[in-house]
Amino acid sequence: MMSLTNVSTANIIKKQYIHKMTSYRDAWKSLIITQLIALAISSFSTGGGTTSGDFYSINVTNYSVDVVFFFTVFWAFIASFLVTTNSYTYEDFSYVSNRTTSAVSAILFVASITTIAAIFTMLSSYFIFMVMYLTQDVNILYGSNTIGDFSEILSSFAAVWGYLLLASSVGYIIGALVQISRIFSLVIPVLIFLPGFMNVQVPILTDVVTFFTTETSVMMFTMKVLITAILLFMLGWLLSAKKEVRTW
Questions:
Q1: Residue 105: how many CB atoms within 10 A of its CB?
Q2: What is the mean pLDDT of residues 217-223?
Q3: What whole-number distance in Å separates Cα of residue 77 and Cα of residue 128?
Q4: What's the CA gap between 176 and 238, in Å, rounded?
Q5: What's the rounded Cα separation, in Å, for the pair 145 and 142?
Q6: Can you state the angle between helices 4-23 and 99-135, rounded to 10 degrees?
Q7: Average pLDDT over the chain, rounded to an integer
Q8: pLDDT for 169
Q9: What secondary structure, in 3-state letters, does the chain show?
Q10: How many CA atoms lie within 13 A of 101 on its CB side?
């Protein structure tokens, strides 16, 4: 049987999660604005070419939603980082709460908005396709890759969702570290950006990037992402639990 304590804790987490999903409007607004800006940029062609013969002329124009993807990855990192800040965590104390329930509800919230962001990112490619179809006075030659079959869509979604979840978990753990000590707000950017400015390769960072980007199996990639994200979220949870209780 489940104890009354466990039921109470579960209910508190549920209430805090619902509160975050409904009241953290800035996260939703920033996602919409970010993707709209990225879609506007993506509406410009990324290349193409022209070929012709005696009786035909074909003009190929390429459009890409890579900008939408990278903008959304950056958004996921920032949104997860902000969830760990005091301005957000203090709202949880409107309930009977502790650091553990606050951290768990925050992690569930981050995972949820990441999944929704991945769906929006996937839909952005079809949005651009429809805009071009409705606004361009051209004949479109439909092929097997125009929309993509189910397996291709599923693989693409897994990749997009995986990278967004990674960005979210990294943003969350960095945010948790910064809340423990402000010194990390100086140390972490230096460790990340200084090697790039000095054109110096950091083997650990290179190995981490290679570990994910060179994986060809969707199943293995998903497993790598889930294990890594869970470990980072758990570490952030433990760090959050060590924070001092808020004083009034």
A1: 24
A2: 91
A3: 25
A4: 9
A5: 8
A6: 40
A7: 79
A8: 94
A9: CCCHHHHHHHHHHHHHHHHHHHHCHHHHHHHHHHHHHHHHHHCCCCEEEEEECCCCEEEEEECCCHHHHHHHHHHHHHHHHHHCCHHHHHHHHHCCCCHHHHHHHHHHHHHHHHHHHHHHHHHHHHHHHHHHHHHCCCCCCCCCCCCCCHHHHHHHHHHHHHHHHHHHHHHHHHHHHHHHCCCHHHHHHHHHHHHHHCCCCCHHHHHHHHHHHCCCCHHHHHHHHHHHHHHHHHHHHHHHHCCCCCCC
A10: 24
Angle at 174 between CA 72 and CA 93, to 5 degrees: 95
Q: What confidence tens digit (pLDDT) does each residue in 40-93 have?
A: 888 776 666 677 766 667 777 777 788 899 999 999 999 999 888 766 665 655
- List all residues 6 or more positions away from 103 whose beta carbon is below 8 Å from its beta carbon: 236, 237, 240, 241
pLDDT digit string, tens, across residues 95-129: 556 677 778 888 899 999 999 999 999 988 888 87
More confident residue, 166 or 215: 166
Residues with Cβ within 8 Å of residue 243, at least 6 apart in sequence = 99, 179, 180
The answer for residues whose C-beta is within 8 angstroms of residue 31's C-beta and 6 or more apart is 72, 75, 79, 113, 116, 117, 120
Confidence of residue 140 (pLDDT cuts 50, 70, 90): low
d(CA 119, CA 161): 8
Residue type at position 193? F
How many alpha carbons lie under 13 Å from residue 242 in its C-beta half-sphere? 12
